[in-house]
Design brief:
With about 650 residues, the chain is of the alpha/beta class. The protein folds into four domains: about 140 residues, P-loop containing nucleotide triphosphate hydrolases (Rossmann fold); about 80 residues; about 80 residues, Arc Repressor Mutant, subunit A (Orthogonal Bundle); about 200 residues, Alpha Horseshoe (Serine Threonine Protein Phosphatase 5, Tetratricopeptide repeat). The strands form three sheets. Strands 4-5-6-3-7 form a five-stranded parallel β-sheet, sandwiched between helices. The protein has a two-stranded antiparallel ribbon with strand order 1-2. A two-stranded antiparallel ribbon has the order 8-9.
Length: about 650
């Protein structure tokens, strides 16, 4: 079976254990074994220690399980509910587990140097050092450098926060309900039955001295109250947010990020400014630095300095626009670039009057870089905008190839886009290179894709590509083959898998929607996305929407949905899904499918306390697996049946089954 995931459950491949050990109790409840150990440590679950192993009485485990059930009966709130106070939480059986050890992922490392921003970084740092400031929001238009400034601040202040910095990138998230899980993932906090994700994060951060950086919040502003509640529950945590708009919550300290400083007004000078005068401008220094990335021997001279100053002035000192312009020095001189920008200025006056001037300038700068591409490179650019997250060369070859031109070289086209600063390489160590677009650039690309008339086709190709990826990975996830690497690889594609699900649902492709959701069930299970996975599967299983899907597709999705409901402690819903799954499997006559469905339903029924009803299900499952001859499933079925037999008062037979598992 290979290496198994650490938090398995009895229905899909969980490691059985000796009767009433911590592992066995975890399997019964569908939780991680750490949850059981922590419950024992805090006195919430009585246990005795024999030969170095904790033993848990069935009655004590049943009481503990009942508290889990009670928690799942509470109606889901429509907005983040206030976090429990320490007094409400207490230290007794109803309390949360102790805070897990923090393992925050390191902030990303920029590939290019930061030019300027010394004053802004110092000012933001001074705000965060004040006792009365807990939340600072960096605001400004796309491309002004909010993320780079935030990263500079985190580097400068790393010593001020004993527990470090947690950098949460939210650019690929559109659902406010996924913000708390995103924070949890960066912190290394996993989902658990006894508490919401937000409560788990609060427990992890309660006594920490940490800087929480939330990057690109503007598309999930509905999650802003969550930030306030988290800060209220964690008095020594501070938050640094980047957003195009303010959160507009209590305690927020806004910090507008200005464009880079420009040279003094050029229009009133009787003669061109000197090189020294121009170089005092941060905007010009950025332009020169980025040009040297294309032409290492570039220096500002009395001939090029005025053109560089004019370029930066016409681009209003916006860093992204300046970097796009600098990338074109490989083809055009600074004087030619300035001339082209001047010729485009009349186009800006015809833009929408309600758009900020800097955003119109940014659009023009991106459009200008886009216009300089060859036709096949333009097609590739707009197609790559469909990626919600980062992508590999393999993805480019599958989704970005120009229709009707099989000779298009994906690598050559991607290289051109990287050289033109329209696509950037994502910093990674010792792995396949990945690429991404800045959100501002991607927005422009999506507009071009919509205008091209090929958006539906490209989104369909994208969705089919990620469906194939998910279905290729699913068997290996269940088998536990190189699981840590595999789950991490799927996580990197999660934003695009979500985009594929959204497209399939919107397009009414019920079969593909259900296939993809079903294929992702083991990933959602083992990588702590259980709440999100349940939501997708319930939508895909809607009886009206999925009326025409094949029985096999529906059966697999039902099994995944039942498993996720089981691990969430929602035994009633899990039982209903598992029963429908078994009925479909029997109709299809697939012995392996019938056996796994029996095992799942038996485990759920046992967890509900209906041992007499669970026994024949688990016995039939074991008999089928033994007849099929699958050693892994035989072991799992024996483990599940052994636990049940022990619970029914036959410890000798139960131990024999478990020992043979």
């Amino acid at each position: 079976m290979g290496k198994q995931a650490e938090d398995r459950t009895p229905d899909t491949g969980q490691d059985p254990a000796a009767p009433l050990t911590g592992r066995e109790a975890a399997a019964v409840l569908g939780v991680n074994e750490r949850t059981i150990r922590r419950a024992i440590a805090r006195g919430a679950l009585p246990a005795t220690k024999q030969a170095g192993v904790y033993r848990i009485a069935p009655a004590a485990l049943a009481c503990f399980r009942e508290r889990h059930r009670e928690a799942t009966r509470r109606p889901a709130p429509t907005r983040p509910r206030p976090l429990p106070t320490d007094a409400e939480r207490g230290t007794g059986p109803a309390g949360l587990a102790p805070a897990p050890a923090l393992q925050p992922a390191p902030p990303p490392t920029p590939l290019t140097s930061l030019v300027g921003r010394e004053h802004e970084a110092a000012a933001v740092g001074a705000l965060l050092r004040r006792d009365d400031v807990r939340l600072v929001t960096l605001t400004g238009p796309g491309g002004v450098g909010k993320t780079r400034l935030a990263l500079a601040v985190t580097t400068a202040m790393s010593d001020a926060f004993a527990d470090g910095v947690a950098f949460v990138a939210l650019a690929t998230i559109r659902d406010p309900g996924l913000v708390a899980p995103a924070i949890a993932r960066v912190l290394g906090v996993r989902e658990a039955v006894e508490a919401s994700v937000l409560e788990r994060v609060a427990a992890a951060l309660r006594d920490r001295v940490l800087l929480l950086v939330l990057d690109n919040v503007e598309q999930v502003l509905a999650a802003a109250p969550l930030v306030v509640e988290l800060l209220a529950a964690c008095p020594r945590v501070k938050a640094l947010v980047t957003s195009r708009t303010l959160l507009r919550v209590s305690g927020e300290t806004p910090f507008p990020v200005p464009p880079l400083a420009l040279p003094d007004d050029l229009g009133d000078r009787p003669r061109p400014p000197s090189v020294a005068q121009v170089c005092r401008s941060d905007a010009v220094r950025l332009f020169a630095d980025r040009v040297r990335g294309v032409q290492p021997d570039f220096v500002l001279t009395k001939e090029t300095a005025p053109a560089a100053a004019e370029i930066c002035a016409r681009l209003d000192g916006l860093p992204l626009a300046i970097e796009l312009a600098a990338a074109r020095v490989a083809v055009l001189s600074p004087e030619a670039i300035a001339g082209r920008l001047q010729h485009r200025l009349p186009l800006l006056t015809g833009g929408t009057r309600d758009a900020p001037a800097r955003q119109r300038t940014m659009r023009d700068a991106i459009a200008w870089s886009f216009d300089l591409l060859a036709p096949e490179e333009r097609a590739l650019f707009r197609r790559l905008a469909v990626f919600a997250g980062s992508f590999t060369l393999e993805h480019v070859e599958a989704v970005g190839r120009v229709a009707g031109d099989p000779t298009t070289d994906a690598l050559e086209g991607l290289t051109a886009l990287v050289d033109g600063s329209l696509v950037r390489r994502v910093e990674r160590t010792g792995a396949e290179p990945r690429f991404a677009m800045l959100e501002t650039v991607r927005e422009f690309g999506l507009e071009q894709l919509a205008a091209s008339g090929e958006e539906d086709s490209v989104r369909g190709t994208h969705a089919r590509h990620f469906l194939a990826l998910a279905e290729r990975s699913e068997p290996d996830v269940y088998r536990g083959c190189d699981l840590v690497r595999l789950l991490g690889a799927i996580e990197e594609e999660h934003a695009d898998l979500r985009a594929a699900l959204e497209h399939m649902e919107a397009a009414g492709d019920a079969e593909a929607f259900l296939r993809l959701a079903g294929a992702l069930a083991p990933f959602w299970l083992f990588h702590s996305h259980r709440g999100e996975g349940r939501g997708w599967l319930e939508r895909a299983l809607d009886p009206i929407a999925s009326a025409q899907v094949s029985a096999g597709t529906r059966a697999k999705a039902l099994g995944g949905a039942a498993t996720l409901a089981f691990t969430h402690g929602d035994y009633g819903r899990a039982a209903a899904l598992a029963e429908e799954n078994l009925a479909l499997r029997r109709e299809l006559g697939e012995r392996q499918g019938i056996a796994t469905a029996l095992n799942l339903l038996g485990a759920v029924t046992r967890a509900q306390g209906a041992c007499d009803q669970a026994a024949p299900l688990l016995e039939e499952a074991l008999a089928l697996f033994e007849d099929i001859g699958d050693p892994g499933w035989i072991a799992l079925a024996r483990g599940n049946l052994g636990i049940l037999v022990y619970w029914r008062g036959d410890p000798g037979h139960g131990a024999a089954l478990l020992e043979g598992a």
